[in-house]
Amino acid sequence: MLGLLALVALLGAFSFGLGFVVMIGAMVAVWVLPPWRRFAKIGATFGAFLLLTVGAGLGGQLDENGREQPDVKAREDSKASAEATASSTPAQIVKAADCTGTPLNDAEKLARFAGFTTGDHDAAKEVRSIIMRSGWTVCFWEADAAAKTIDFAAVKCYEPCAEKDGGALPWPRTPNVVGATYNTAAKDLKQAGIDLETLMLDDVYLDIDTPTAGEAAEDGDEWRVCFQSPDQETKVTSITAVSLGLGRWSDTDLVRGCPKGKDTTYRIPANDPDHESDDSTGDDSGSTGGGSTSSGSPGTVHPGSFCSPQGTIGVT
User: Fold this and answer.
1) pLDDT bracket for residue 182 (50, 70, 90)
2) How far does Cα 233 stand from its chain's mean position?
3) 51 burial level (CB within 10 Å; 0-12, 13-18, 19+)
4) Is 36 helix (H, G, I), strand (E, B) or coil?
5) What is the mean pLDDT of residues 109-126?
6) DSSP class of 283
7) Which residues face 265 on adjacent strands?
8) What share of the chain in percent tops pLDDT 70?
9) What is the DSSP letter of 148?
10) Cα 255 from chain centroid (whole Å)
11) Which terms are listed as keywords in the entry (predicted)?
């Protein structure tokens, strides 16, 4: 009985009418032959109908679009295309099939429409297998007009084409941008062929938030590149993450330089909870809060220091 139900789907994929007849026979057999319970027979009946529908759908039997006759304009276009192909020389057909820069699957469709047999291979020296053609882009092609064949050489859609078929992919390499302003660094990276939309930014001070790309570009002359990853002359492939560690300062800031390491210093030293003023005098007997003062003078601190005692002199 299960084999008969499976036969419904198989025949329905080739002929909807034949599948329908077998489905009726299967339904009768289900209710007469096997000693199944009522609910099992109802389920088998519904299953036979479902199998017929699925089989017919997979086989294209229910595709009305596939059985529609082309309209007058479509027939005229097809006739004109056939006449043009018949009157064209092989060289003209080969030239028309040039699909450099297009997805490989589209290029092969156009070539087959022109009457060519297609082949494809990896345009890079790695000689990788091409599985999903929609994810590859045509770089080179070679046609044989006499044999009516075209061989496409392609790379993955996010990869650059090599200078010649089978050559190395010309991945960009990182320039040295350490010490440059953000605007200058962004210009150099773009000229090197690196996509700025994939660029990651980070701050180098604990008391400064990481800027967005828009914020860094707006104040691009104040943001400076302190660290870069990867290093200079590193090949940047499609999976390489390029990041810049930025510091920000102007001529009026107390600190105007990059730290020795990331996330280790404060742009404003007084923001460091462990910071102590170098200008304080005396012992700690008169201190309150975080400053060190004497009984006669509250001491001297920089603006922004934590818990400065009353009467402290602020110096900028």
Assistant:
1) very high
2) 24
3) buried
4) coil
5) 87
6) -
7) 205
8) 67
9) T
10) 39
11) Membrane, Transmembrane, Transmembrane helix
Residue type, 15: S
Please count the CA atoms within 13 angstroms of the CA of 303 that sit on its side-chain side. 5
The yes-or-no verdict on residue 244 having pLDDT over 90 is yes
Q: How far is CA 249 from CA 10, 100, 112, 260, 269, in A?
A: 74, 48, 62, 16, 13
Paired residues of 235 in beta bridges: 173
CB-side exposure of 159: number of CA atoms within 13 Å?
21
In the structure encoding, which two tokens stand for residue 100, read together? 């450099």
The torsion angles phi and psi of 214, rounded to 5 degrees, stand at: -65, -40
| Interatomic CA distance for residues 24 and 235, integer angstroms | 66
For residue range 200-238, what is the model confidence (pLDDT) as tens digits? 998 888 878 888 888 888 888 889 899 999 988 888 887
Nearest to 62 by CA among 5, 17, 4, 10: 17
Statement: the pTM of the whole predicted model exceeds 0.70: no
Residue with tokens 């990896």: 122
Residues 6+ apart with CB under 8 A from 74: none
At 13, the pLDDT band (50, 70, 90 cuts) reads low
